[in-house]
């Protein structure tokens, strides 16, 4: 009876499949993990423009200059840090994404050829942890913008009595904002990444217009900018760190803050119609627009300093001040409402795309029989209630500081990924060996490529001490620990890159750089197949999987909605 119940539950939880398309799920594959066919690669440059806009047109980017100014850097030095760090972020994001652009596989599958089938869970679990926690924190921060919207409509909401216990490190006011933000976000989890174009457009335009409006209003009202805009270097001669070291630390910090998104950039680059669209979208928004948003945040804050006599970097706080100084007039409340709504919508969709959907992709790699992107995104979102972000933000500042420094572990992962793909394999991957371990070149030793693990550890070992003393704010720690930590991203990336290359020279991997002779998955267009040296497979030729898993590969041509023939790779259950 118990066995029958368990079997029934497993069957109910197993992902559905469309027999007309011969779809199948297995221990290592489902529809969201296989190489994407042309019919699903729908992202043009504007999709990536919108995607990266979510990482640029947001509250965090707006107040980025404050981080560096409070450390003693001048405005010019702070902007230099931002320009350099964002340019480097573009470079690393493109390097990691290139595999997805070429072979149309995501981060989960990409790691199998470097780490081995089983060891690929090491980077995967790190990403899942970060997705869970940052999703929860982003929901909490987005909830603050929701409270501004509600207060703009009903000013009495700001005075709502706190009904939570004294031991709870938050208030009813904040909790309502969190709940509303969370609930409104849930429907967007059901949108497939292929259909993100419209939400990208709405969110980027809404927030962009809101930021420009706030900038223009502040400059016109103030008639100029306040003293903060002209702030010079304030690093004293007796300071422990020179301006150069602070700038280096700032660049490292800025890159590290985006490392999680860069590490899994192939999860979204695989949806690209072509490589050019991804590169144009990345450079135009992540670098250029990101720098302009930082500058706009600085100018607006400086102008508002002149208006209110105080510096307000955080947009939710600034909007509440604007409403208070407007004396509750309908005009000021309406302006604040629409500004907060624009910020909130962008924050919401950034969280859905960068954390929830990314978490769904990673969870699909962990349990492909039972979890696809949609289920994984829902699990990631519901996990916010378990994580309780109000506890983290208000009572676990050290833990949040460690999360912000997690690039210490991610940079070495990126180092081995880039080394393996570009230097060792020369951008050549045998796709058919990525989805079944039996007989695969990527099974290595019991599913573990032992070469990669010591290289990854060696990448973060020199800087882990600096992370600890920095999180503890230990002023008595040796300078060397801090100095290593201030360049942790570069150290981690380079050490793992070099050591992994040397390890493969000393202990060569068999069949390195081999590819499938035929397009077994129907993933390439005719021009792509020609460039890669792969024979296009226009017939239903099946190969590469094993009957031991009960899977037959089927490559069929299906007619798209537009009437054009598109290749579709799917599976049929036996």
Automatic annotation (TrEMBL):
One of its GO terms (cellular component) is plasma membrane. It comes from the Eukaryota. The chain crosses the membrane at residues 43-63, 83-107, 128-153, 173-191, 200-220, 278-308, 376-393, 399-424, 452-472, 484-503. It is found in: Membrane. The keyword Ligase does not apply. This is Putative NCS1 nucleoside transporter. Belongs to the purine-cytosine permease (2.A.39) family. Keywords: Membrane, Transmembrane, Transmembrane helix. GO terms for molecular function: nucleobase transmembrane transporter activity. InterPro entries: Pur-cyt_permease, Uracil/uridine/allantoin_perm. Its main location: membrane. It comes from Colletotrichum sublineola. It is a multi-pass membrane protein. The keyword Transmembrane helix applies.
């Amino acid at each position: 009876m118990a066995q029958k119940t368990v079997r029934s539950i497993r069957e109910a939880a197993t992902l559905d499949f469309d027999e007309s398309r011969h779809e199948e799920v297995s221990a290592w594959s489902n529809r969201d993990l296989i190489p994407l066919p042309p019919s699903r690669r729908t992202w043009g440059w504007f999709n990536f423009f919108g995607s990266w806009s979510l990482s640029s047109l947001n509250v965090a980017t707006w107040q980025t200059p404050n981080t560096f100014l409070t450390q003693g850097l001048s405005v010019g030095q702070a902007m230099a840090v931002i320009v350099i760090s964002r340019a480097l972020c573009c470079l690393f994001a493109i390097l990691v994404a290139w595999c997805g652009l070429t072979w149309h596989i995501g981060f989960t599958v990409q790691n199998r050829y470097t780490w081995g089938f089983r060891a690929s869970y090491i980077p995967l679990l790190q990403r899942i942890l970060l997705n869970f926690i940052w999703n929860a924190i982003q929901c909490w921060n987005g909830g603050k913008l929701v409270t501004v919207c509600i207060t703009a409509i009903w000013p009495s909401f700001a005075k709502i009595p706190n009904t939570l216990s004294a031991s709870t490190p938050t208030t009813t006011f904040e909790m309502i904002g969190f709940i509303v933000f969370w609930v409104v976000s849930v429907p967007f989890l059901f949108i497939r990444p292929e259909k993100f174009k419209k939400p990208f457009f709405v969110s980027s335009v809404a927030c962009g217009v809101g930021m420009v409006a706030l900038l223009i209003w502040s400059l016109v009202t103030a008639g100029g900018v306040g003293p903060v805009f002209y702030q010079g270097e304030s690093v004293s001669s007796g300071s422990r760190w020179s301006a150069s070291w602070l700038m280096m630390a700032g660049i490292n910090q800025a890159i590290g803050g985006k490392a999680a998104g860069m590490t899994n950039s192939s999860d979204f680059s695989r949806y690209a119609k072509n490589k050019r669209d991804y590169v144009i979208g990345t450079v135009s928004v992540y670098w250029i627009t990101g720098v302009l948003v930082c500058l706009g945040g600085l100018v607006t804050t400086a102008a508002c300093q002149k208006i209110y006599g105080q510096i307000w970097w955080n947009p939710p706080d600034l909007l509440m001040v604007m409403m208070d100084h407007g004396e509750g007039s309908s005009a000021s409340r309406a302006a604040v409402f629409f500004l907060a709504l624009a910020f909130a919508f962008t924050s919401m969709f950034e969280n859905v795309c960068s954390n929830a959907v990314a978490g769904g992709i990673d969870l699909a790699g962990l349990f492909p029989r039972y979890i696809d992107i949609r289920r994984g995104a829902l699990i990631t979102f519901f996990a916010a209630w378990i994580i309780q972000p109000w506890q983290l933000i208000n009572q676990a500042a050290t833990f949040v500081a460690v999360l912000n420094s997690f690039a210490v572990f991610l940079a070495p992962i990126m180092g081995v990924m880039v080394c393996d793909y570009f230097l060792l394999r020369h951008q050549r991957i045998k796709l058919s060996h990525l989805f079944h371990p039996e007989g695969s070149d990527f099974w290595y030793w019991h599913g573990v490529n032992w070469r990669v693990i010591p290289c990854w550890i060696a990448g973060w070992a020199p800087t882990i001490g600096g992370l600890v003393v920095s999180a503890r704010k230990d002023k008595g720690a040796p300078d060397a620990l801090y100095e290593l930590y201030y360049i942790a991203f570069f150290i981690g990336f380079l050490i793992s890159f070099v050591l992994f290359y040397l390890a493969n020279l000393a202990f060569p991997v068999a069949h390195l750089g081999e590819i499938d002779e035929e397009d077994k998955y129907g993933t390439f267009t005719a021009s792509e197949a020609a460039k890669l040296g792969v024979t296009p497979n226009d017939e239903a030729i099946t190969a590469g999987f094993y009957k031991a898993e009960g899977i037959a590969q089927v490559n069929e041509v299906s007619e798209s909605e537009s009437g054009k023939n598109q290749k579709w790779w799917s599976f049929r259950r036996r």
